[in-house]
Amino acid sequence: MEVANQALLERTKKTRSVTRSIVTKQTNKLESEINNSVDKTIVYELYMQLISKFEELVKLDKEIEGLIDIDSLEDEILTREEYRDKFIIWKTRAERYIESVSSIAIRNSAETQLQNVTLPLNSSVSSVSTNQPRLPKLTLESFLGKDIGSFPSFWARFKSAVHENSSLNHVDKFSYLKSVVTSDADLAIRGLTLTSENYAKAVKILEDRFGRQELIVDYHMNNLLNLTPVRKSFDVIALRNLYEQLEVNIRGLESLGISPDSYSCLLFPIIMKAIPPDLPLEYNRKHDKKQSQITDLMEYLRDEVQSRERTKALVKPYESQIKGCHPYSNKYFERETQQKVHSRFPPSNHNKSSVRASANELLTAAYSNCLFCKENTHLSDLCENLSVQQKRDKLIKERRCFICCNSSCYVKKCKKSGCSFCQGRHARAICFKLENSKKQNSHLDSGEKPVDFKTTSSNSVMNNRGGVLLQCVKAEIIGSSSSDKIFCLFDNGSEKSFVKKNVSRRLGLKKLGLERLNIYSFGSKTPKKQTCRKVEVRLRNVLSGEETVSETVEIEEISRATLSLPNQDAWREMESKEFRLTFSSSESSESCEISLLIGSDFYWSLTNRIKRFDSSLVAAETSLGWSLQGREGIVERTSCDSLSNSQGFYLPHHAVIRSDKTTSRLRIVFDGSAHEDGHLSLNQSLYTGPNLHPNIFELLLRFRENPVAFTAVVKSAFLQIELDFPDRDFTRFFWTDNLNNEPYVLNFTRVLFGLRPSPHLLAATLKHHFKKYKEQYPHTFDLLNSSVYADDLIGGRNDVPDALRTTLECLQIFSDAGMLLRKWRSNSKQLNLFWQQEGVETEFSETSAIDLRPPIKVLGLAWDSERDLIYFDPKDLLKFLSRKIESKRFILSVVGRIFDPIGIGPFVIKLKCLLQDLWTLGLGTSSKATPQVAAVE
């Protein structure tokens, strides 16, 4: 069998070699005729011959690709694409030449025979009277045949410009028609030679194939029946798209003589279900006394969309800060997003934050559009809508790797593992052996009754890191034999509600039946088919006694991880606001085991009020009691009975006011170097760690190399890194909200600025996240790896587009790390404008007065971004010098206030010489300077 295939492959390759030679000769002839001939007939004949031969070449390429091995496929595709590119180039040149020659002939004929006659203004090939202004040439849009609804508008334009143009003969009209129909439309009339009789046949074929009224009506009605719902009224873009879809299809039906009133009974509820839930309520309030029509509803939607668009234009552009994958929808980022989504592997932790808030978040991220059939109901690995051969053809057409399915990778260089079924060097989705195995199994099982499986996700993403709270309550579960108090987790990311099997059997919960599920557990790529018992669960609020009944599915394990409960500070705060939690203060800060997961099927029927405490912590009232969800603060209250008996460290702190800052001008500074006599300070007891920061001088030089420079700051960078529980006792400090009350003890839950290991911890954390994007964004990785100093990003690029792309990629990388890059500044006004359009938070608004802005600092040096100058700002120094204290300590303070990264500044050199003189004279720290030294000052 292999010998026969090899012989067939050799014969096909020889045939293709001859065909390629003919195509090359035809291309050379075509080039010669275009350059030397004015007879469009010869050019057109060569053009048609070239198309015919290239079609033969395409068929031969497909046959060869099905016969060769995977290792040779890459070279085969590259060679094929070279011929394809050459063909497209000369096909386009020939079409332009034929069109230009035809236009000249038509224009001359029209000008000599039709003097003083005004032709239709929308004609793309006719000329106008010499008394009329010469309008720009109109270009006819092509018709693919994919979108039947666009045929009426296409034919109206073609009919006006070409079909009814009396100056054109039928052969020329047919030429124009063939040049503007492609894909399915071109296939419909392919084979008709270029004659006058065939033009009428081609028109008739296209009208019968794409112009039948019943087909167009069905097309518009299907679009109306399959509208994409919009669930959030603040999503203005989605609302506008929905409104435009409605308008386009309603107008399309009206153009066919079908009034909206004739199908309003069907369309009205469809629209009501497609728009956000709050809009139907508002509409019914305004139209409660009259019979509503589709026109009334469309006017209401139009007004709502326009009002929201005006409101959005007035508010600050950057209200939605970085919250997830790809928050900035720009043309640069979309390409990277598409490459990232269309992978055979589900998204992994290297592209997401390590902490997830929902059980179904990973599943939702993985369920992006399938690479092969574009549906969003399954992974690409599990697609059964296309055959393996069709999948392979699609990968070849889109130039994707046969192993990882990414467009930026090749088989020879791909490092991903191959097929898990046959261990071959290809993706599992395109495995012929797996397909044959499924067919055999299907044949064997054909006598069995098919089972309807439901697909669901089964468990939440939980961790026992202290910082993030999930929505959890303690409730009493009542069974037929006994009752018990359990912890329940609310998770609207899970499609079903689940109860642990041992709890259900122990309490004797009422059985309602069996249900078969496809359960996608966290991180799995394939579902686990499982038959589960469906039971009735009766829950009682442990505080109010209110009971609820729901249906849940038994499962062996919800999660092996334990869930952290809110600490005692949060418990006390909830109690003070009369939002009582369902567990006692003694249970606070402890871990609990989840016995019941309440999914989306009962989530909102049990959830009532929502109360937001701050930007990251929310309280939700449920029928089972109040719960807390979100991220806890950066400090927490700690109990300490005696200072002498407890192990830890108490940090002194004081306020520092910085008038040169645009945010946080009043800051609390903690002193980790303070200590008693004869004792070590906290900083002396800590390991500093290696220096991972770049050299400041080299960083400043790189900053000045690029024409487009930019800087940014990481918001609260140190406070994004969590402290382990045993280390928190060494970050205690005293605090009070009221000076009349006794102070209480707080400790940090995050790394704080001022401790010796903090810079190393921050740099190591950032580099860890940067490495995840080394392959995806190599240029941005190099920039971040060498241009981030502590929480400052100092970089640049050669042009504005590259700078914009880099900044958006930086925002994405930091967003996935759970950090926010803000206070962007640049010396390019164009880049600043692009940032505003993308909603990037800049240092200053464009309307703020330049004179009132504090100087921008780049690693301690003042930077005038308007003139792109680095300068020394003497204001603070002159203010300090006005004190005129002639002592050694004062002079040392003056020198310390001047930041010179190079160390050889002229003014600094003079001060260093002065310090040497002071040391030579042997003056004490508080001693008054000699007259000679004072004179130098």
From TrEMBL:
Record PANTHER family: GAG-LIKE PROTEIN, PHD-TYPE DOMAIN-CONTAINING PROTEIN
Q: Which GO terms describe its biological process?
A: DNA biosynthetic process
Q: Report the source organism.
A: Araneus ventricosus
Q: What is this protein called?
A: Uncharacterized protein
